[in-house]
Amino acid sequence: MTLDELYKDLHSHPELAFSERRTAGLAAEWLAGAGFAVTAGLGGTGVAGVLSNGDGPTVLVRADMDALPLREETGLDYASDVVATDARGERTAVMHAWSRCRDGSAGNHSPQFAPLIEPTLTAGVNALVTAVRDVLPAA
């Protein structure tokens, strides 16, 4: 699967936070196929890939896998039409909001890898950080 095919597949099959089992499986499969040593199930659905290239520092890149409870209205041929049950038990449309970076919208797009800023999700991040300590090479 090419990176573009993976992007479109993940975009059209979004999963809400703590439900990203399919997404995690695809991420683990893609990383393994690219030569990474993969550990899955970190903090629940987290995935870590380690690509060793000799002695030196370890760089950790964090990226979100979860989608948002929003209806997609981009008109893309791979747009999400997924409806899922959220944490409150309510049915909601689901989309990956980063679609705006690929839909031809004018302006600047600056993807950022940033620490979690949503305080309600710190439990998931704490679980992932605790689990990933055993996976990453010592710095």
Brief write-up:
The chain has 139 residues and is an alpha+beta fold. It has helices spanning 3-12, 21-33, 122-132; strands spanning 37-42, 46-50, 83-85, 91-93. The chain has a two-stranded antiparallel ribbon.
Tell me about this structure.
With 139 residues, the protein is an alpha+beta fold. It has one domain (3-101). It has helices spanning 3-12, 21-33, 122-132, and strands at residues 37-42, 46-50, 83-85, 91-93.
Chain-wise SSE layout:
Blueprint: H1 3-12, H2 21-33, E1 37-42, E2 46-50, E3 83-85, E4 91-93, H3 122-132
Antiparallel strand pairs: 1-2, 3-4
Number of domains: 1
Low-confidence stretches: 99-103, 109-120
Helix content: 10-25%
Strand content: 5-15%
Number of helices: 3
Q: For the report, how would you describe the main beta sheet?
A: 2 strands, antiparallel
Structural class: alpha+beta
Number of strands: 4
Outline? globular
Give the overall average pLDDT: 78
Q: What is the ordering of alpha helices and beta strands?
A: HHEEEEH
Name the strands of the widest sheet in spatial order: 1-2
User: What is the CA–CA distance across the termini?
Assistant: 32 Å
Radius of gyration using CA atoms only: 16 Å
Question: What is the quaternary state of this protein?
Answer: single chain
